[in-house]
Every structure is written in structure tokens, then in C-alpha cells.
Specification:
single chain, six-stranded mixed β-sheet, alpha/beta, 13 helices, Nucleotidyltransferase, domain 5
């Protein structure tokens, strides 16, 4: 498949809001008692993972009441067959049953449950969605690439530096990678994070106040799972990594980043994905993942390259047993690293801001903003 390009006439413009910060409650039961604020659920079913958050509005933020994350590998075999396999659908439905029980346990009434690239591509996706509804009672919706990209961008707004004039937000998924290039040079520095949040009205929306201009965006149908599948027949570990990085860069030919002659000041990349947070955790040598240390971390290109070289030196078996990577991620970390390295080569900055946030956070704030339960209300 070819990369998805902007389609202004029929773009998906569902309103999306984002947090200034996210609080994770230590005692979920204390947040869901009588008279407390309502609970909301957001579920992201991707090519590799099924992840859900249940949260409660708290001022202008939200507090996490419960969560779920499992590698279901929904997209296994999709590249070759064009269909979701029976085994992958069974695994996914088992995970969704757990999500449904959590939703029922907490009495959640407001929820948005979305599927992304694997279900966008699979010929039998509609049958799968019906099967999910029949067996779990959950109503999944397949969202368009532009909405997925917007949700990733808006969730990263709190990490935008006030000195940033040109921003690239990258969301590396299991089946696709979304890139959005935003020009903030006409926005007063103090208003730049807020201008990003206003993109909930659409990439081409004007709104009120300073406007963040979307210069270009693209959805490349290559994520950590689909890129790995492209080169699964290459035995040599280092050669496979080099080929994956080159191939991903080739698929960005129609994207319009700045050329290398432009100055690096005022440029920022924000990366949101399991790949980015895993690389950050490895750089920090975290044996046990800690979101508070990873979210918002800035890494240089040299630091990222050092981690990737360590991954290559470990080899497949070493990566499988490395506690910084984890058993759910070891098979996919090199394809994600290949994407990350390609992006750092072509974008004129040597720093990456790490975001442990994304689609689920955007989905939660879309609902909370629409219901008017946040102190700040929606950005207009």
C-alpha cells in the first residue's frame, strides 16, 4: 500500500482534546465511589497491541483508574494474506473480554473504542468487528489515518517547547507510522502548546487565537510489525536492520521535511510509541519501566544511536532476555529502531523528545472535552 496523504475534502474532523498532564491514581477504588466524577474508557486496538485506559476527569487533567495492555499480534500474517487470521482474532477477542470486564466492573458508561491500521487493511475487518460485538458486547470503530495522526499530535502538546518553531510529531505504530510537520513560527512562544491543542478541529482548521499550521502529514503503512514482515527472510541481523531503515526512508519520498541546509535551532521532534519509550528506558538503564522518568525525556541522536548499537550487539537472543526491552517488545524493537534512525537522519535536529502518551489519552480528552467536564474546556 502507498502512504496515506492529506485529503482536505473528506478528512475526519472529530474533536479531540489533550491533557496538560496525566495523573495515575495509586488506589483506583477511591476514585469511583458514589458522587464522584464519571468514568471514561478509551481503547486502542492496533496491529500488535490492545491497550485500554479507564480514567476520571480531575480539574483540567484526568486520573487513571484502571488500565490494560497486551500484545495480541492482530496483524500477524496480514501482509501476506490481506486478512486477519483466525488465531490472531481469537487472541484479540480474549483480550477484549478482559477489557469488557473492566469496563463493567467500573460501571463505565462513556467510552470510545477504536481500531487502526490492521483493521483498515484487512479484507475481513468488518466481519471481525461484528464478531467482537457479538462475543464481547464492545462496539469497535475503525478510525481514519488523519484522526489517528491528530490524536497523537494533540496528546503531545504539553511537551512542545516554547522555543519550537518547526515541529515533527512521529507516532510509530504496529502497522503504520504517522508523521505530522507543523509550523509554529507565527505563534507567540507562550501560546505554542495551546495552538497544538486547537488542532482537534482538524489539520486545516483556523479556530480562534494563534494557529499552528500543518505543513504536511503522512501515514506510512509501515510500523514495527509490518516493516519486520517485509524483511523476515533476511537472516543477517545487521543487514536486516539496515535494509529496514533504508526501506522506510524510501517510503517517505513524498513527505516534505526541511533539507539539511536549514539551521537546527527551533526544530523539535516528538516521538510517541513503544519503540521510543523502550529506547529511552534502555538509555536510562531501567530494569523496571518508570513512566515519570521516560515521558518528556530528551535524547540526542548520538544517545539513540548508542542504544541501537547496543541492541545490534546483543543479537536476537540477547534482546529477548534484556529486561530493559521486555519479552513483548524484543521481536519488534529493531524494526522500530530502524524507523526511528531513518527519521533522525532526515529531520534537521539532533534531539528527540520522548512521549509516553498517544491515542488513548487523546480519545479520553475528546470525550471529556465534549461533555464539558474539564475545567479548561475545549480549545477553540
Amino acid at each position: 500500500m502507498t502512504p496515506e496523504r492529506p485529503r482536505r475534502a473528506d478528512a475526519t474532523d472529530a474533536p479531540v482534546e489533550t491533557p496538560k498532564a496525566v495523573s495515575r491514581a495509586n488506589e483506583p477504588s477511591a476514585l469511583s465511589g458514589p458522587g464522584s466524577a464519571p468514568l471514561y474508557a478509551a481503547l486502542d486496538l492496533g496491529t500488535n497491541s490492545c491497550r485500554m485506559l479507564i480514567a476520571q476527569p480531575l480539574g483540567s487533567q484526568f486520573s487513571i483508574v484502571d488500565s490494560f495492555s497486551k500484545s495480541v499480534q492482530l496483524g500477524v500474517g496480514l501482509e501476506a494474506s490481506g486478512r486477519l487470521s483466525r488465531a490472531s482474532m481469537v487472541r484479540t477477542i480474549q483480550a477484549l473480554r478482559i477489557c469488557e470486564k473492566k469496563i463493567e466492573k467500573h460501571g463505565v458508561k462513556r467510552m470510545r473504542l477504536v481500531a487502526t491500521e490492521a483493521c483498515r487493511r484487512a479484507r475481513n475487518a468488518k466481519d471481525f468487528i461484528r464478531q467482537v460485538r457479538r462475543e464481547t458486547g464492545l462496539a469497535l470503530e475503525i478510525i481514519a489515518p488523519e484522526e489517528e495522526a491528530r490524536l497523537a499530535v494533540i496528546s503531545c502538546a504539553p511537551l512542545v517547547n516554547t522555543t519550537t518553531e518547526q515541529l515533527l510529531v512521529v507516532d510509530i505504530g504496529g502497522g503504520s507510522t504517522e508523521l505530522v510537520w507543523i509550523d509554529l513560527s507565527a505563534v507567540p512562544p507562550a501560546d505554542r502548546p495551546k495552538a497544538i491543542m486547537r488542532l482537534h478541529m482538524g489539520f486545516n482548521a483556523q479556530g480562534e487565537g494563534p494557529v499552528a499550521r500543518v505543513v504536511d502529514w503522512i501515514s506510512v503503512p509501515l510500523g514495527v510489525a509490518t516493516l519486520k514482515d517485509q524483511f523476515i527472510d533476511v537472516d543477517d541481523d545487521a543487514a536486516r536492520f539496515a535494509l529496514m531503515s533504508w526501506f522506510f526512508e524510501e517510503n517517505l519520498a513524498s513527505f516534505s521535511p526541511y533539507n539539511a541546509e536549514n539551521p537546527r535551532e527551533g526544530f523539535q521532534i516528538i516521538g510517541t510509541s513503544g519503540t521510543v519509550t523502550t529506547v529511552a528506558a534502555s538509555f536510562l538503564n531501567l530494569k523496571r519501566y518508570d513512566r515519570t522518568k521516560v515521558d518528556g525525556l530528551q535524547m540526542t541522536s548520538d544517545q539513540i544511536d548508542l542504544v541501537i548499537r547496543e541492541y545490534l550487539a546483543l543479537g536476537p537472543e540477547g534482546r529477548r532476555t534484556d529486561p530493559r526491552i521486555g519479552r513483548d517488545r524484543h521481536a519488534l524493537i529493531m524494526s522500530g529502531a530502524a524507523i526511528l534512525q531513518a527519521l533522525m537522519r532526515i529531520w534537521p535536529t539532533d534531539r528527540l523528545s520522548v512521549a509516553d502518551r498517544g491515542l488513548r489519552e487523546g480519545l479520553l480528552y475528546a470525550q471529556m472535552s465534549a461533555d464539558g467536564v474539564l475545567e479548561d474546556g475545549p480549545y477553540k
